[in-house]
Amino acid sequence: MKITNRRFLVADFETSTQAWLERDNGWTRVWLWGLYDIEKDLFEYGIDLDSFLKRVLIKDKEGNPIIYFHNLKYDGSYIVWWLLAHGYKYDDDLTAENTFKTCISDMGQWYFVEVCIYKHKKAKYVIRFQDSLKKIPLPVRDIPKAFGFEETDKKGELDYDTYRPVGHQPTEAELAYLKPDVVIVAKALKKLEEQGFTSLDRKSVV
């Protein structure tokens, strides 16, 4: 599928750790997500995977963006699990609504996940989750220095093993940790876009 230049968002999940498993009956979960639109300088967040997918699997009147994750292999596994759990079917051709496909190499490299949320005759509305790590092969904390960003653009610290129960409302410190992750990646992607590095946005990787 050809994808022309379009706006993008950057997302990130904060998830439970091994230390939480006993208290969560062996399940892992998303306890906080962030979503950033660099064109609007708009940061949104939520506290579970369900609210994230319901937020992004919609028809956007401005045209659906590409949604980047920095290491889609990790975050995308939660997305694919949710899709299967909610009745979405795998279809390489995305021939119907509520179908999805993935582009994962034989070496386990995740490139993108695409979800068809609307189809009528020849019209098709597809949401794409894409791996920014393929375009920026650096940890988030190393991106500001590599791209010459200001000293204020730094990734903070978070105690991952502190237990947050279902329904936990994020603290200001937790949001202050999450927001730079998506803002830093968005700024780097925007800089690459301005320099013409858009090849992975224009076409599917096969």
Task: Give the helices and strands, then pairings.
Blueprint: E1 8-15, E2 30-37, E3 42-46, H1 49-56, E4 66-69, H2 72-85, E5 89-90, E6 99-104, E7 110-120, E8 123-131, H3 143-147, H4 172-194, H5 199-202
Parallel strand pairs: 1-4, 4-8, 5-6
Antiparallel strand pairs: 1-2, 2-3, 6-7, 7-8
Short summary of the structure?
This protein has 206 residues and is of the alpha/beta class. The chain has helices spanning 49-56, 72-85, 143-147, 172-194, 199-202, and strands at 8-15, 30-37, 42-46, 66-69, 89-90, 99-104, 110-120, 123-131.
Describe this structure in words.
The chain is built from five helices and eight strands. The chain is globular, with a radius of gyration of 17 Å. Strand 2 (30-37) and strand 3 form a beta hairpin. The longest helix is centred in the last third of the chain and has 23 residues, at 172-194. The protein has helices at 49-56, 72-85, 143-147, 172-194, 199-202; strands at residues 8-15, 30-37, 42-46, 66-69, 89-90, 99-104, 110-120, 123-131. The protein is of the alpha/beta class.
Spell the H/E element sequence: EEEHEHEEEEHHH
- Report the span from N to C terminus: 10 Å
Number of strands: 8
Residue fraction in strands: 25-35%
Overall, the morphology is globular
Largest sheet: 8 strands, mixed
Regions with pLDDT < 50 over 5+ consecutive residues?
Answer: 1-5, 202-206
User: On the 0-100 scale, what is the average pLDDT?
Assistant: 90
Strand pairing plus helix content: what structural class? alpha/beta
